[in-house]
């Protein structure tokens, strides 16, 4: 007789517990990532995995307004009273080493309903909204980070060779450990290389559904941090870890398809873009001034988001244009996953669930409104006569734009906007008068896992 219902659930979780114990797992951590972009978690002994799924682990609502330091940005809606729960799916528990398994958590109320400030649930709703429109969505993530010495200083002092064989082979033991740990955790890594900046590393992840990709970004940060620690290193996900250094991005790639095929290829528009694909790109560009505070709204973000940094600081799009906010990748033999739109201005201080939700929701908004694709900018935007209007990249400007945006409230919900504005305004009060050197030092490890 087949097992079903509650008995089947108990059997399934019991089997998962046995599997984890066989893999020498002692503790399971479930994490959430807050609006400030910091990942926080709670641990239980592996035998309590079923409780983590059903009842969840209690957290104060203030977790949603924790700041990058030890501050709490209370809002009219969030104070000292109340309780929420982090719940995980045991099937999603991944091995991260040292007797620990990790699973992405969702934030809910006592009854099990998603909390208003659960960024993972927000992204799941955006994914469902795309499905309701008959669209299949795939998102790819890239993680740029900086290797540090154990004390937080630069990991190396010798001359750096961007993408160099010497600079990568000097870290071969770490890179092999990273790849091995990622494989064991079920993390689909497609590429690893040393980057342009000194001691900078990039990891590219395989495209997946939106929620799965955001989960993978957090898992990749954890795997990077744990593997680095075994080699006497630390990992910084700060947008700019040292004053004057190259910035770290957190680029997101979006592809969309309907019953007729991909929206970014097979059409008669520029580079094969179909009408709805053009509207999707237009929607992303149209909302950039409102959502820059989501994508790059931290106290460190303005140090990276400047023309000439290949950070996508211009509100435009272009084929393989690394200075455009939206870099378009056409469907060619050199693009194994087909055509996609890359949002370049996202940095690692952004919550990946929230940033992906904003990216996808703005694309859907463009399709719904049948927005026209703007003219392509095929060169450095600073060299053209009709330069795109500047984005509000200063933190005060970005937060003001977010707070006053009806679009942001519609796409993300007013509660989410209020919480994000609160934690970023705390940063303005705390770090706004510091020099770039002081800000980068204070927040170098703020977003590390």
Automatic annotation (TrEMBL):
Gene3D superfamilies for the chain: Glutamine synthetase, N-terminal domain, Glutamine synthetase/guanido kinase, catalytic domain
InterPro entries xref list: Gln_synt_N_sf (IPR036651), Gln_synth/guanido_kin_cat_dom (IPR014746), Gln_synth_cat_dom (IPR008146)
Q: Which SMART domains match?
A: Gln-synt_C
Q: Mind telling me which PROSITE patterns this protein's record contains?
A: GS_CATALYTIC (PS51987)
Q: Name one GO biological process term.
A: glutamine biosynthetic process
Show where the GS catalytic domain sits: 119-449
Family from the record? Belongs to the glutamine synthetase family.
Q: What is this protein called?
A: Glutamine synthetase GlnA
Organism from which the protein derives? Mycolicibacterium sediminis
């Amino acid at each position: 007789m087949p097992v079903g219902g509650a008995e089947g659930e108990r059997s399934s979780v019991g089997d998962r517990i046995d599997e984890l114990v066989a893999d020498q797992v002692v503790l399971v951590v479930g994490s959430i990532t807050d609006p400030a972009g910091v990942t926080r978690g709670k641990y239980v002994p592996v035998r309590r995995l079923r409780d983590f799924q059903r009842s969840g682990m209690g957290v104060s609502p203030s977790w949603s307004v924790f700041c990058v330091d030890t501050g709490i940005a209370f809002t009219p809606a969030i104070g000292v009273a109340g309780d929420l729960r982090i719940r995980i799916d045991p099937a999603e528990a991944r091995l991260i080493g040292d007797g620990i398994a990790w699973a992405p958590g969702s934030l809910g109320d006592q009854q099990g309903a998603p909390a208003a400030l659960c960024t993972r649930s927000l992204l799941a709703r955006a994914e469902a909204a795309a499905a309701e429109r008959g669209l299949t969505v795939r998102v790819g993530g890239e993680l740029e980070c900086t290797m540090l010495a154990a004390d937080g200083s630069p990991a190396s002092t010798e001359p750096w060779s961007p993408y160099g064989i010497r600079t990568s082979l000097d870290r071969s033991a770490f890179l092999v450990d990273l790849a091995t740990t990622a494989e064991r955790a079920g993390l689909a890594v497609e590429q690893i290389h040393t980057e342009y900046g000194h001691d900078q590393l990039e990891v590219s992840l395989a495209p997946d559904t939106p929620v799965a990709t955001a989960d993978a970004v957090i898992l990749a940060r954890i795997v990077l941090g744990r593997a680095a620690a075994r080699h006497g290193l630390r990992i910084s996900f700060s947008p700019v870890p040292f004053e004057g250094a190259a910035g770290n991005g957190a680029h997101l790639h979006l592809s969309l398809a309907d019953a007729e095929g991909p929206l970014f290829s097979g059409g008669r528009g520029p580079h094969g873009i179909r009408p709805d694909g053009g509207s999707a790109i237009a929607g992303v560009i149209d909302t950039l001034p409102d959502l820059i505070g989501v994508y790059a709204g931290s106290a460190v973000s303005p140090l990276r988001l400047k023309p000439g940094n290949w950070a996508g600081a211009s509100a435009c799009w272009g084929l393989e244009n690394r200075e455009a906010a939206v870099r378009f990748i056409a469907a060619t033999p050199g693009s194994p996953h087909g055509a996609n739109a890359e949002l370049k201005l996202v940095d690692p201080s952004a919550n990946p669930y929230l940033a992906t939700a904003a990216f996808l929701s703005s694309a859907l908004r463009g399709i719904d409104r049948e927005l026209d694709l703007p003219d392509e900018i095929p060169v450095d935007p600073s060299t053209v006569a009709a330069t795109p209007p500047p984005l509000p990249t200063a933190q005060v400007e970005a937060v003001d734009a977010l707070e006053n945006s009806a679009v942001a409230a519609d796409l993300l919900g007013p509660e989410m906007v209020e919480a994000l504005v609160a934690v970023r305004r705390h940063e303005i009060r705390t770090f706004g008068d510091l020099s770039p050197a002081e800000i980068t030092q204070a927040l170098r490890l703020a977003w590390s896992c």
